[in-house]
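Proteins fold reproducibly. Consider a sample protein:
=====
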Amino acid sequence: MITPEFLRLPDLASRALTGSVVDASDEFFAERENLIEPARAVHDSSEFGHKGKIYDGWETRRRREPGHDHAIVRLGAPGRVHGVVIDTAWFKGNYPPHISVEATGVEGYPTPTELAETEWITLVPKSEIAGDSANYFAVADARRYTHVRLSIYPDGGVARFRVHGTPLPDPRFLSGTIDLAALEAGADIVEVSDSFFGDPRNLLLPGRAGHMGEGWENARRRAHGNDHVVIRLAAAGIPRRVEIDTSYFRGNAPGAASLSGGDGATWAELLPKTRLQPDTRHHFALTSATPITHLRLDVYPDGGVARLRLPGEIDPKALADAAIAWLAALPAHHAGAVLTAVCGPTEAETLLATGSLRPEAIPATAITALLGMRSDFG
């Protein structure tokens, strides 16, 4: 089977990105939280509990009345959804024969009751799936969502629910000093020399690594040269400092590291080759005055790094552009709520009269109000 291209993108629903299963119609046999665990589902055929066979997944009871079951996931990183995976690993005689997936975008932190009353948009119509399999569904939708709803027909078990896409953060929380290299802010890995033992995207995850397996680790280098990773930042910005965290890497931390910043094609030194210590959070001040869009971390000659943080400020013009792109990507009901708050119901209704929000139609006054900044961003 050809691997879907969307699997290269981050899993926006993952617990590693602080996703959460906020509601489920039933979880009698296995807890809903298992759906978004980053690790693959495991199985022990001899493991039983007082409710029956224990599964590493979400499993509902056998439905004896009309209807179907569902679970709602709050995305850890709201964004555009490019594809979903319904993984029924180990569920062979108890998987749901059909599923569907819907999504919504909302303000704030709604309750399950409030989510039930919002507008849901179909990403995957009711479709047949197979048991004990990874079922892939590509999604062609350019809107930005905060929650997804997995429905199973009529009941059964799903091991993992993956929602692959591109983060599109709320620009109202991107002003001031932020981590320019955070995955949840829109940064991502675009190049890596080697990732034999650990995914380089782990560098950009929120929180501290829990063990060595939650960082980026390359194989032992036997040739000349050194390993590196290139990060596309959340937006063009000026980095103020960097944290290179080698926590849990004791006998396999890099001996040294250096940083370069640029546009992905041309580079300037941000941090010269500097000695690192094992199992240590290293903090270094940076003095760059020019906005950069990409960061390159070189480790010498190889080794593991748990996390990389790059506190700094987004360039004002880049922040304004991000705000325009964010507004234009919102579902109509979400965009209406935001525009009503920043420019009033009359103008909001006018802007959304065609049913979609065109970037070129968004007035500068709306962006200024949204960001709370002066209209000096060009």
The domain at 173-314 is CATH 2.60.120.260 (Jelly Rolls). The radius of gyration is 23 Å. The first helix runs from residue 112 to 116. DSSP finds five helices and 23 strands in the chain.
